[in-house]
Amino acid sequence: NAGVTQTPKFRVLKTGQSMTLLCAQDMNHEYMYWYRQDPGMGLRLIHYSVGEGTTAKGEVPDGYNVSRLKKQNFLLGLESAAPSQTSVYFCASSRLAGTYEQYFGPGTRLTVT
Amino acid sequence: GENVEQHPSTLSVQEGDSAVIKCTYSDSASNYFPWYKQELGKRPQLIIDIRSNVGEKKDQRIAVTLNKTAKHFSLHITETQPEDSAVYFCAASNGGGGFKTIFGAGTRLFVKA
Predict the structure, then answer these.
(1) pLDDT above 60: residue B53
(2) Count H helices, E strands: chain A?
(3) Are A90 and A37 a contacting pair, CB within 8 Å?
(4) Confidence band for B98, pLDDT divided at 50, 70 and 90
(5) Residue A98, pLDDT score
(6) What is the DSSP letter of A84?
(7) Residue A113's CB: how many other CB atoms inside 10 A?
(8) Over the stretch B74-86, which tens digit does the pLDDT of each residue have?
């Protein structure tokens, strides 16, 4: 049981390049989330999904797109990377009911030059 | 928009002393209040949570209190140990189908041996 995994762990992009971050969970969770973590700003929600095939905007969605084609995977895309998107990205998942605990992945450190 | 304010941003205590971190939230619909601990370079992990129908919850050396009228909640750590040194995040969530969690900016706790 790997929990929540993320790939890649590190990435350096040039301004304007695109990339996709992959999140996978093996806990059969309904909810999945993408956060970014910047110094002094905590965790800010980018997008989230309440089930396969559904996504919704979070607090800071601009410049990002997401897809949830399979229940276990949640992809975060950057179409044209900007230096302001330099951050650590965390994926998380949680159950539909019973407990709202979020299980986080190990994070992806992205630098945009 | 909705927000969660967390204080202090940095807290330094002597080993064995108590530490208190306070948070206030703005969304009156919030009904779930988790606390996450993030060690350096690691992922956030849930340490304790409380629901809106409970005023206090305790788990060994940590406790959380909630005042719904004042919209604030606090984390109390007693008999602090060096391994308690980490960043602590409070959060507020309204659960339900539009499930979103708003995190505080974090408190960096240093426990001096």
Answers:
(1) yes
(2) 0, 11
(3) yes
(4) very low
(5) 63
(6) G
(7) 10
(8) 999 999 999 999 9
Question: In the structure encoding, which two tokens stand for residue A76, read together?
Answer: 């975060």
Point out the residue among A100, A104, A107 whose CB comes nearest to the CB of B32: A100
Q: Give tens-digit pLDDT for A58-104.
A: 889 999 999 999 999 999 999 999 999 999 999 999 987 666 789 99
CB B64 within 8 A of CB B37: no
Contacting B residues, span 6-65, partner chain A, CB-CB under 8 Å: 6, 9, 32, 34, 36, 42-46, 49
Residues of B in contact with A31 (CB under 8 A): 99
| Neighboring chain A residues of B99 at a CB cutoff of 8 Å | 31, 48, 50, 94, 100
Residue A42 and residue B34: Cβ atoms within 8 Å? no
Q: What is the mean pLDDT of residues B38-47?
A: 95
Nearest chain B CA: its distance from A7 CA (Å)? 14
| Structure letter (DSSP) for residue B52 | T
Quote the mean pLDDT of chain A.
93
Backbone dihedral region for residue A71 (phi beyond 0: left; psi -120 to 50: alpha; all else: beta) = alpha
Q: What residues contact A99, with CB distance under 8 A and at least 6 apart?
A: none
The string of pLDDT tens digits covering residues B1-15 is 678 999 999 999 999
Of the candidates A59, A100, A105, the beta carbon closest to that of B43 is on A105
- What six digits make up the tokens of A74? 């949640």
Could you say which of B36, B43, B93 has the minimum Cβ distance to residue A100?
Answer: B93
